[in-house]
Design a protein that fits this description.
By secondary structure, the protein is mainly alpha-helical. It is built from 8 helices and 4 strands, in the order αααβααββαααβ. The chain is flat. The termini are far apart.
């Protein structure tokens, strides 16, 4: 039969004897490549089933001990850690409410829905701003969900503290651009205008630069001081 196939390859496809032999050697490789996705899918399904069985076993164990799972080993199932749990009300009754300005990244993790990463983002954003002066500024923190913000006020009180200010008449554009409300391009314009027209005396002076909107000036104004050099 092999000789017949060799003859057919030679007469119909013009294969030489060496080319025909090479073709037969290549066939097993082609067959393995065609079967590879099916084999990989089989082992993937098996691994998924094993993981699911272990997950169910963990749930059973936790339920027997009265525990509650916060994260899941399943890649396609991630329960929200902001879901209300029976112990949430008891926790709030046992702790002392603190001003948000005194909270660090560890204390913030008492809030359902706020883990270590999100807590770190809140503190970093607060420090880069110079302090929160409005509760709504928490909505600007990347990854902080609205329901987590609502829960946060059940554990902490918002306190408006004097913000850390940037002396706009003294710093260069690199320092100005470090503030979340000021882009590098805006910082360049602010410094260039100051060098050409002299120091700013109040926040409204920024409106003399026609490209800036009043809403932005009101937003950044509390974080600026206007002491002259």
């Amino acid at each position: 039969m092999i000789n017949q196939l060799l003859f057919w390859l030679k007469t119909h496809l013009g294969f030489t004897k060496k080319e025909s032999q090479g073709f037969f050697l290549l066939l097993p490789t082609l067959l393995m490549l065609s079967l590879l996705p099916t084999v990989m899918r089989y082992f993937s399904d098996q691994r998924g089933e094993d993981m699911y069985r272990r997950y169910l076993s963990q749930l059973d164990s936790l339920e027997r001990t009265g525990g509650h799972i916060l994260t899941s080993p399943l890649p396609t199932f991630a329960p929200m850690d902001s879901v209300k749990r029976k112990g949430d009300a008891l926790v709030k009754d046992r702790i002392r409410r603190l001003p948000l300005s005194e909270a660090d990244s560890i204390l913030l993790q008492i809030v359902p829905g706020i883990g270590a990463l999100t807590a770190g983002r809140i503190i970093k954003y607060r420090e880069s701003l110079g302090g929160f002066i409005f509760p709504e500024q928490l909505q600007e923190v990347f990854g902080l969900r609205p329901e987590a913000i609502s829960s946060l006020w059940e554990y902490f009180d918002f306190d408006k503290v004097p913000p850390k200010k940037i002396c706009i008449n003294r710093v260069n554009q690199e320092v100005l651009a470090q503030h979340p409300y000021i882009s590098y391009q805006e910082a360049k314009v602010l410094v260039a205008y100051r060098m050409q027209h002299g120091p700013y005396e109040r926040a409204q002076d920024l409106l003399k630069i026609k490209i800036f909107q009043e809403a932005w000036v009101e937003k950044i104004g509390p974080y600026l001081c206007f002491e002259k050099e």
